[in-house]
UniProtKB/TrEMBL annotation:
The lineage of its organism: Bacteria, Pseudomonadati, Pseudomonadota, Alphaproteobacteria, Hyphomicrobiales. This is DUF429 domain-containing protein. It comes from the Bacteria. InterPro entries: DUF429 (IPR007362). It holds the Pfam family DUF429.
Amino acid sequence: MNPAGQALAGVDGCKAGWIAVHREAGAAPSVSVFASFQALLDALPEATIAVDMPIGLPDLSSKGGRGPEALVRPLLGARQSSVFAIPSRAALYADTSDFTTIEAWYAAHRRASAVALATSDPPRGVSIQAFGIFAKIREIDALLIARPELRRRVFESHPEVAFCRLNGGTAMTLPKKIKGAVNPAGMDERKALLGRHGYERTFLDQVPPRGAASDDFLDAAAMLLIAGRIASGMARPSPDPPLTDRLGIPVAIWA
């Protein structure tokens, strides 16, 4: 599950911050939740990290996304709606407030959508789903701007692309969620695949840490496998070679 001598981490955003399934060389995997991505980096200072979060932001958002999205969607069949386009960096930073009321949150969403409309071709606003992770995208973006060396060990991936790659190029047939509720059959399909890649079922069946959902946990577990593939040179970026944004941050989905 991990190359010799490599510390690895698979990371997904969660309600409490970030959930990481991580392991040191020769050790069993463990799971932790961190309130911030900085705290995660402090706890795992040497780890190669695969994270389910967009990395590298466009100045102008074009149809289909930044580039990686259009390449991976056709691989996923019915799961391709899980890959959504990222608006411009200006839209992501349009309102960075800490929201104290739901009204303020919706007002900030409208401001971000207005900026997104002005910085996309064809003009496109911001979905509620995308807006919900803006703060986490900014969190990683700010760190990669301030600390360029992190770009060599923090990589964007995507759970459904990961599951597809780990499944020999065949996408998962069942969704993890149906109408916002966890789908046990879809979770079992993914657990079976993760088990074929070295996970113990007892590990996958554990209750995730407080502040993280069961699907966040499985996604982070898949991300750990991609981190191992990256560290060993087996992973491939889409596109290959990666693009870069205006600040030199790589833009690619690894799996």
